[in-house]
Amino acid sequence: MDTAQLNEDVTIFANQLAEWAASALPNLLGALAILAAGWWLSGVAARAMGHMVETRPYVDPTLKGVLTQIVRWGLLAITAVAALSQLGFATTSLLAALGAIGLAIGLALQGTLANIAAGIMLLWLRPLRVGDYVSAGDVAGTVKEVGLFATTVVTFEGVFTFVPNSSLWNTKITNFTRSTPRMVRETFGIAYEDDIAKARKVLLKVVTEDERVHADPPPVIYVSSLGDNAVALELRAWTDGSNWVVLRFDVIERGKLALDAAGISIPFPQRDLHIKNMPSEVTKLPPPPKKRKPAA
What we know:
The protein is α+β, with helices and mostly antiparallel strands. The protein has helices spanning about 5-55, 65-85, 90-110, 110-125, 165-170, 195-210, 245-260, and strands spanning about 135, 140-145, 150-155, 160-165, 175, 180-190, 220-225, 230-240.
């Protein structure tokens, strides 16, 4: 091997590398600086947008998740384009390439685009808002955030649930918080020998003395059915949606205690057996056979 030729080749390569580094390194450092600044700025802008939504009373908190994500990802996309432009890529060609890539990704991720479209429709029609207790399909809980791709729901037991927006949009949504006032409807069974008027008076006193129960329309109690074991009294009272759960539990407990104190029984399922014909003599069964002792 010719040592002189090798040294000459190495020298030429080192000079070319130095020339490239001298011309490309500033652009590379500039692109890295743009990426770092854009990443930091997108986080700050997203947090600022979230804070603005929380502090402005005229802005619906439901928009917080979507607006923060749009601001963050929009700034990151602009940052990426600026960094590539700093490296010498043509912006027009770059945008065309990004458009083609976005179209290909969109075709591959049709479910994701469906979630975005469903999220936009949920924000536009507002069947639910942050803080509402809703039931949709097999999901029931309090809405914590409506995002661009999915909605966060926390169940009554405190379980975190991540629900795709398309699942919410394609099923029936029942909003319990939006329904106000709401009716508390409970059934109390009393014995057939008990006084219906007395039981009605006792139960009405329980609900009318509660400040959470609305006076208009007034609470009422009907005889809803004559069951096999009890007379069913149905209590109906109206209250605010936020008080419905607690008031329902209180009505059940206090109604039971009030009926007990008034001497009105709540019967349990039972059957009365009436024998019409009893035979005068009962046939005696023969005694069981005696066991034989084993032979010695």
